[in-house]
Amino acid sequence: MILLKVFTFIFVYRQVCCTAELPTWHMKPLGSHKPAEKVDEVFADNLVSPQEFADKYIIPRKPLVFRDVTKTWPAFKLWTDEYLVEKYGEMELRIEGKKEKFTGTPKGDVCLGRDRMKTFLKEYREGADKYVVSDLPISMYKDVNILPSMSCGDFLKNFVEIDMWINSDLGKKGQGGNSLLHKDAFNTVNCVVNGTKEWKLIELKYNDYVYQSWEGPLDAGYGGFSLINPDKVDATKFPDVGKVEKWQFVTINAGDCLYLPSQMWHQVKSFGETNRAIAFLFSQFHDNKINASCGDKSPNATPLAEVDVDLQYSGKGNMPMGGSEMESVRENMKELINEELGYITKKLSYRLVYSSHSTGYINKRLILEKAKNLYFHLFKAAGEKKEAMTEEFIDNLPRDQIRPLYDWMFPVEPAMSYNHEYSVFLPEELVDEVERLQSQNAGVLNKQDFLTRYLEMGGTLTFAEDFWQRLAGTEESITDVSKTIEHAVEKYVYYRRDKPEDERESSEDDVIITPQGHKSQPKKAIGGYSRKDTEKEPESFPKTEL
After folding, report:
1. H/E/C letters for each residue in 9-73?
2. Distance CA 115, CA 260 (A)
3. Which of 61, 72, 300, 401 is a plausible cystine mate for 261, CB 3.0–4.6 Å?
4. Could you report the per-residue pLDDT of 77-131, keeping only the tens digit for each?
5. How many CA atoms within 13 Å lie on the side-chain side of 425?
6. Is 409 helix (H, G, I), strand (E, B) or coil?
7. Count of CB atoms within 10 A of residue 403's CB?
């Protein structure tokens, strides 16, 4: 009895003691440690001028709300589900699971992570665990306008990407989109067409207090996400959150836009049975110089269809989402020039493509093909005169001639292509499943058993059947896979997002150093993963046929 009382006393003491030491915001939503500050706002009938927007908000990285500015867009009146299906039903859109980083890639009717507009709009109100976050197809540009405060000068030459978001909370608050706390590389103006979005904003200077995740050794640190659960912040794991001295909260309704500065930390919650938004991504303006003068004209809303956006998506094929702004690509092209000769060479074309592809020395044939396409595209643009491929030639190259270079100069992110599924499965996992199924059936692997298991693992039937065809051809079963298994997993090896544990080269203590000198959390803080871009570049390059 005495012993029981002692244990009871210790238990109660620990509960009272430990609870007393925890801050009041423990296990409460992000921002509970102090009241939020307001975001500046302007209204459609009294907007800031483009130059004022640049000088007072963009350069000092200060958010701004534009109220009622999208109500004059064609999209504001036209974008019903019926209209979108009729006009753009065949457009292919990128989809993700509603719980960012915590749900697998949804299966679309095109491939993993991609739906046609008409299919998504049929299913999203029926409770499907997916939402659209996609490049806006250029055929839809005519329904959208650029804000008057961005319709002059340098703004019109520096739109990098236009994204579309579609979601639904099924009429139940909390069932819509709910992002992690994260930051994006580009400046963004996010405009709501239908529904409501709630934003929590934290300035970049508090980066060290929001526990930025390690994402990979080559991550530049401009973007990123936090390890914090913004809906329930654990003060025992993330005590420095309480050091964030200022945060802001704002609600954006249908018709409103929010300017979000480059690299400002934010969490977004979406509400409404129908929630649609357009995001305009534009230059970071690293030099802090923006000439937004309108001259003699007054700024008016500019149809997006009249603007030459850097990254354009046709509605099918590879999406350019997440690519670099065009002028930085133009500068990268100057690495193709041989300093002694003064013009672009075949060898340097190969070297640039090779070095920019994390799997370059695994699939040399693909790299060679891309390098040839790159070189001969520029060669033709120079009138088939190699001596004309100079720095001046690059400086004056029309933007339409630069767009095709993206797919050749840089790797195509699997999630932006029809090959996304190859990056979802580790080849070792597929080999293990083949061996396991064989061992359960006296050494025989049946086609139907494999197809069933592949679908259970989150894959699609198209890719499962392709794998089987590479493994066993037209046979319905196979016993000896030793001669064909390597061929079956070949594409999964090429697109792999991870490496076997014993091949990892990065340290568990590795961190990302952001351009501003902030440090991410160490790799081990998230359990760690490795990417193929940690592999070392070969000491010498293979000879080419260029």
Report:
1. HHHHHHHHHHHHHCCCCCCECCCCCCCCECCCEEECCCCCCHHHHHHHHHCCCCCEEEECCCCCC
2. 28
3. 61
4. 999 999 999 999 999 999 998 766 556 789 999 999 999 999 999 998 888 889 9
5. 27
6. helix
7. 16
